[in-house]
Amino acid sequence: MLDQDLHIHTIFSTGDGAVVPQQTVSLIAEVRHAKIIGISDHFDYLTGNRFEDYRNEVLKYGFLLGTEVDGSNWVDEAIEYPFDYFVYHCYNQTRDYQGAEKLLSTGKPVIIAHPQALDTDLNKISVNCYVEINNRYVWRFDWRKYYRPFIGIHKFILGSDAHQPNWLNHTLAQHAANELGVKNTIIF
Ligand SMILES: [Zn+2]
Ligand SMILES: [Zn+2]
């Protein structure tokens, strides 16, 4: 069993074609692949009326209430909702680095999602954020070269980014973390 997984999608990410219909919150509860579980569906699909349904479903199983925020355009709205933490798409542009700062100003944990996939410059990220080693994406890039300069500077966190039941693991992220000699940060 994993210690923690805070990057998980479910059918509440309605517009994400990678999510299968079986990926319900109740299925995550049945599988229980981690001791600490947070659900982090895309904020784009959680606004307005849908939010209460999402919150009720996630809290029903005792999971942490997260969301994945797609860049600075969504930050002002996202911080108005009572999430426990944020997973953040920080594209390589000034306004998105500012968006990360704004999320941090809430005092809630901010996880910088699959930074290599978004060309995030980790030099521009506060050390108060958690830098993700993402099981879905890490293997696609030269993660040794990308992460090594930041060992001892940033805190790292492993995330499955599961969209399907068989993605509920950290096999590749854990391999990368072991090779880099970095620890998974348990934040709850
Ligand atoms: Zn993402
Ligand atoms: Zn995701």
Describe the structure.
Helix content is 26%, strand content 19%. The protein is an alpha/beta fold and 188 residues long. The two termini are 16 Å apart. Bound molecules: zinc ion (ZN) (2 copies). One zinc ion binds next to loops.
Count the strands? 7
Question: Do you know the CATH architecture?
Answer: Alpha-Beta Barrel
How many domains in all?
Answer: 1
What name does CATH use for the topology? Answer: TIM Barrel
Number of helices: 6
The topology string of helices and strands comes to EHEHEHEHEEHEH
Largest sheet: 7 strands, parallel
* CATH homologous superfamily descriptor: Metal-dependent hydrolases
Shape: globular
Supply the CATH class.
Answer: Alpha Beta
Query: Radius of gyration from the CA trace?
Result: 15 Å
Bound molecules: zinc ion
User: How much helical structure, as a percent, in the residues?
Assistant: 25-40%
Beta-strand content estimate:
15-25%
Question: How are the strands of the biggest sheet laid out side by side?
Answer: 1-2-3-4-5-6-7
Structural class: alpha/beta
Mean pLDDT: 98
pLDDT < 50 runs, ≥5 residues: none
The end-to-end distance, rounded to whole angstroms, is 16 Å
